[in-house]
Amino acid sequence: MMTPLLFLLLPLVTSHRHTPYGSKAPYDMVAGNILDFEFPCKPVSLFSVHRHGTRNIGKKIVQRIDLLVGALQTKFMSEGVPHDNLKWILDFGHRHKPNKDLILEGYNQLHGQGKRFSQPFSDLLSDTSQVFVGTSFKGRCKSSALSFLHGVYGSDFRVSNHSEILKTKDIRRDCDGMCQVYEPLTAEKSESNKPRVLFEHEQNKLLRYYKECRNYVEKESDKKTWQQEPSKYLNSNRMTTLAKKMSTRLGVELTSHDVVTLHILCALEVGAPRLMTNSRFCSLFQDDELYITAFYLDMMRYSGKMISEAVNSSCVLLQDGLKFLQHNRGANLKFAHTETIFPLLEHIRYLTEPMTATRDLYDREFFGDITPLGGNFFMVAMECPGSSERIVQTFLNEKPIEFPGCGSPCKLDTIVKMFPEDKCDFEGICEKKEFDFNDYLSQEVLVISGLVIVVFEVVRRRCLS
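Predicted structure:
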């Protein structure tokens, strides 16, 4: 819960439907509550995809914020602080480790989800032989899954990969020692009678499908191309004007890139204030200025993560979920990344509008906080009295949404017909090369050149003989 003091330091952003904190937004700031929803019929099957919870930041972000804050502190110490209300910068520090591991806030997000899910889906989760958990190979995803299971079962569970009970040291990150979610196994306890949950902790082909897609990886690595539009916005009048205003406030010349870094510091301040000592970066922004920098960060995320091959290849994850909802009772729980959920939402056409520089700051479809830290997308299949036909209710961050083109609730068979399995050609999407005329022309030139050389050599030899 946000402290009163922190709330007073934040710019007024509550009048808008989305926060300006993008994909770093805390879950409870944007999410609903599944307990507020009344299911019209009995839930029999659950397919959910969860983003990992709040984590430490990566090396590049640490270097970026340390460089800017260090420059500010050095200037203020040598030349004096331009305004008394900026003295806090001299004492600012952060305790983020550059390892992207789950932290206590992330544990609390997923643990809370597990506790809430255990109530409306008690019948689906009580028989652990019908509960299937899948994560990517990243530690923060494994830890998020364990945190969720801890919320559902308390300490009364084990996780196994088919026949082998996985040991704590193989899968657990412990939130700096604060999140003891899984009792270590010893030789004496290896035959524990605690219920086992099937835990596949390297489902990368399903949950990091985009990284398995060669055509996507090639396009995403061409940053010069997909960053063109975001770069134009970064150098636009809107951003340069804000940079000038911020430079005046701080008494230091700042670039648009520096102002984006200040935005990131603000988002970290909101997401994990425990790790941000004497932090008031959000107070540097006035009115709705955070939405100006949020627009750039959202453009970067959209342009890099919503490449068509990522969107189309997400069909493998949707097919996995639909098959489970059709043929199983129980729960199929996935724990992965924001890049896992965003393309899936566009694949089912929940997101349809491209994120371009012409979009309005506020009135636009795509916002990074659609998948906040700990965010989720899930589908619940239900059976109603007197009918064997299953209907589906879809949720985003524990808020009910209509399944695009089908309504709420929607017949499961209708969704299956909308997304037939034979149309999900992962190899065709990810391995086949698009026709490139220039590449084709280059190959033709090489072939013709080779033939010319051969003919010339034959003629030369005949003339010499």
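Summary: Residues 1-14 have pLDDT under 50 and may be disordered.
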